[in-house]
Amino acid sequence: PIHDRRREALLRQLESDAEHLHGQLPAFAAHHARRERLLGPPVVDDGHHVTALTSGLARLQPRRALRVSDSARVGSITKTFMSIVTLQLVAEGRLRLDDTVARWLPGAVPGGASITIRELLNHTSGLFNYTDDQQFIKEYLADPTRAWTPRELLAVAVKHPPLFPPGTSWS
Question: What's this model's pTM, rounded to 2 decimal places?
Fold first, then answer.
């Protein structure tokens, strides 16, 4: 009986500690999300439960808290991510900066045999920027939550003539 009471007391204390720690997780997650500039919700996996946390507001008017299921458009920062992955592939010897677009996406880009990965990365490919297409802007503003596929965005860009021959200017 004494062991049962001790065990019960210990279990109650553990449950209390767990509740206390769980209550502290949102503040902990918010602090580290700000410090580390995290783009997504922090996730805690204790081996038994997975908890995703959010902090802040998704909307100011009307006021709505951020939910784990919310998504955010990250825009131009994806250029940095793609550049890093591309350079990692170069370092691994899986592609070369002087490989052509046509080598990796045959037929996808008119003139792709004359455009290199290097030119894509340093903005000297001459390809039209789809965000400068007025019809795209109109459709985007009409439905900003629409998810555009890479193929759709490429189609918007290549319906326009190149801005300049590859490697001769910057855009």
Answer: 0.61
